[in-house]
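Researcher: Go.
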Amino acid sequence: MRLAARLFAIMVALLSAQTAFAQTTYPNRPVKILVGFTPGTAPDLAARILADRFAEIWGAPFVVENIAGAGSNIATAQVAKAPADGYTLLMGGNSALVINPSLYDTLPFDPVKDFEPITQVFIAANVLAVPAELPIKSVEDIVTLAKASPGKLSYGHAGVGTSQHLAGELFKHMAQIEIAPVPYRGTTALMPDLLAGRITMSFANISNVVPLARQGKLRALAITSIKRSPLVPELPTMAESGYPGFEAVPWFGLVAPAGAPKDVLDKLHDEAVKTLALPDVRKKFDELGIEPVGNTRTEFASLIKREIPEWAKVIKDANIKLGN
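Model: Structure:
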């Protein structure tokens, strides 16, 4: 019995040593970063910027894999079910981690229980914009017109459940107005109708709105982030425009499967934050119209937990369902 106990103790010690060695030498084989969107999109490009940096620093391949579809649920579910060793990561957005739980009857993952947050990588604020020829100079002008002609105004959005859609519904709820939603297949698709005045307004992505606003083709009224954007510091927030607490931005962050080793998570976090602070990386993000974040693991986890019930209420109050 003593010999058996000793052998067991030796085996446990060896396994522990191997695990510790594997963790301290992470990464010693290729790492995958899954993205639930097509190549060339902001989360894809941000993932590739981080992947290139990680590969350069640690000498191991970091491969970005695009698995688009189902509101990024497919990629998110794959990471949730992957081994918890830090070799499969997700560039996950608030669509899958915060919004989709209230849009889908069932999901193959739990956004809180199935993931280890590493850091929030970026936000891409939306801007409330109207055609330049319309006599609308402020957010309050929209409210006045909407109350004078209920249901006559319209807003274009990039699809049911997107941040642009939810921003419109949140605005309607907070301002107590009726504006007809008009869905499109993305922000690019709605731009011709917005420019032509066939829709009254849109909460469109900042990278799409700002160049056109600077050309005088659109009028930007307010930004949907909680703080002003350094990309357009002159533009007030929706909160400053009379709607305290208004925030509706798409964001993305790096997460790993639940149970991944803490030292691996900390290593990924620390290098990601350093990368996001690099001047050349910040310049690339500016060119994409996105703002780097790089918060702590605890702050990122708290954000996810806080936003799930917040958006659940907006979705319930607006009776938003897939296929609307």
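Model: Confidence is low (pLDDT under 50) at residues 12-23.
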